[in-house]
Every structure is written in C-alpha cells, then in structure tokens.
Amino acid sequence: MATRQSVNEYLQRCNEAMKYAREQCKTGAQQEHYNETEYTKALQGLENAVNDINHLSLSANDQQQDQLYRMRLQLQALQNEMILLRH
Predict the structure, then answer these.
(1) What is the pLDDT of residues 19-51, one digit of tens each?
(2) Cα gap 39→43, rounded to integer Å
(3) What is the reported pLDDT for 37?
(4) Can you tell me the distance from the alpha carbon of 19 to that of 44, in angstroms, rounded to the nearest whole number?
(5) What torsion, rounded to 10 degrees, do the Cα atoms 64, 70, 22, 85 define?
(6) pLDDT at 29
(7) Which of 80, 82, 54 is CA-nearest to residue 68?
(8) CA torsion sign, 47 to 51 to 56 to 58?
(9) How many whole angstroms separate alpha carbon 46 and alpha carbon 51?
(10) CA max distance for the chain
(11) Cα separation, 23 vs 20, whole angstroms
C-alpha cells in the first residue's frame, strides 16, 4: 500500500516535471528547433511520470488513485500540447 507521504512526494515531483516541461514548451515556441535536447528531455520526463503514476496507482487506495488519476490527466494534456507544438 502506498503511504500518503510517498504519494504526496510523487505528486510534487510530477508538478516539478510539469513546470520544467512548461518552461521548455514556452522556449520551444520561441526558439523552434534550437532547443531540441531540452524539449525531448522534458517530454521524456512527462512520459516517465505517467508510467510511474500507473505503477504507483496499483498500490494506492481509492482517494490516492483519484489524485494520481487527476495528475496523470494533467501530465498527458501537457504531453499532447508539446507534441502538437512540434509540427
């Protein structure tokens, strides 16, 4: 069973990954193809976070699963936004 602390710590890490990805998305919109490495790194971070959420939710209670599900939706929305930005 996932502890409240471990879920909260993980949600914080997800927020940090989203913050970094948003920064790279903004930079990518301004510089286009000049920040490929950082942009790709941000996308990979989001993908890793989604995969980890799926794994963590297997041992979470109902309330934690709801929190993790909502975070996963936010991560995936940002992933989609970043993918669509890169024509």
Answers:
(1) 999 998 888 777 766 778 888 999 999 999 999
(2) 6
(3) 86
(4) 14
(5) 140
(6) 75
(7) 54
(8) positive
(9) 9
(10) 44
(11) 5
Token pair 């979470």 in the structure block, residue:
60
Indicate if the pLDDT at residue 3 is higher than 70. Answer: yes
Q: 8-33 b/e with 16+ CB inside 10 Å = b?
A: eebbeebeebbeebeebbeebeeeee
**Given the structure tokens 């949600």, which residue do they identify?**
11
Phi, psi of 38 (to 5 degrees): -65, -40
Scan for tokens 């930005």, then name that residue. Answer: 85
Residue 59 phi, psi dihedral angles, 5° rounding = -110, 15
Cα of 64 vs its chain's centroid, Å: 17
pTM: 0.86
